[in-house]
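hi support,

uploading two proteins for the ticket. first:
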Amino acid sequence: MARLYVREVHLLKSVRTRKDNDKELAHLPRVFGHMPIELIAPMHIR
């Protein structure tokens, strides 16, 4: 999902938002990389 976001939405954002998103997106694979997307629930995001 993160790759899809980067490919389709990321470049539409402002430079500042993209910079912030880049930092945030760097953490996603470490935290959620081992989980199938359909198993990620709101409690995992908190």
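and the second one:
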Amino acid sequence: MRTFDLAPLYRSTVGFDRLFSMLDGAGFDSSAPTYPPYNIERTGDNAYRISIAVAGFAENELTIESKENTLTVKGEKQEKGETQGEVLYQGIAARAFERRFQLADYVQVTGAQLANGLLHVDLVREIPEAKKPRQIPIGNGKAKAEVLEAKAA
């Protein structure tokens, strides 16, 4: 019987999806903030995109920082001095926010763009050549014997 939900882990991590697929049933219930809403998509084998709804925020009011294995997106509205009229109802949230995403090893931010009220952050997992699996040839022992014979002669 499964008593854990992985959804909270999917919400704030990028690149760990293979691990979560293996666990499929273990997770933690968290009271993570829900503002602003966002999506995490896989756009390729090793490519991801985080889309965050930032309606009402201008490009200069958003900050994206990648440090170690953490991606931080901050938004802070700048105060407007005067408005044209009296606001009767404010349904568009203009509060400051900070979202943190834990990135798997070798996941790097490749770019970000703001379009139609959505901030898109593109990521890619680039595994160094030294960390990739490699094929090891299996010898039959003849080459080693030939080297030993050449040294003896």
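thanks. also noticed: Residues 25-29 have pLDDT under 50 and may be disordered.
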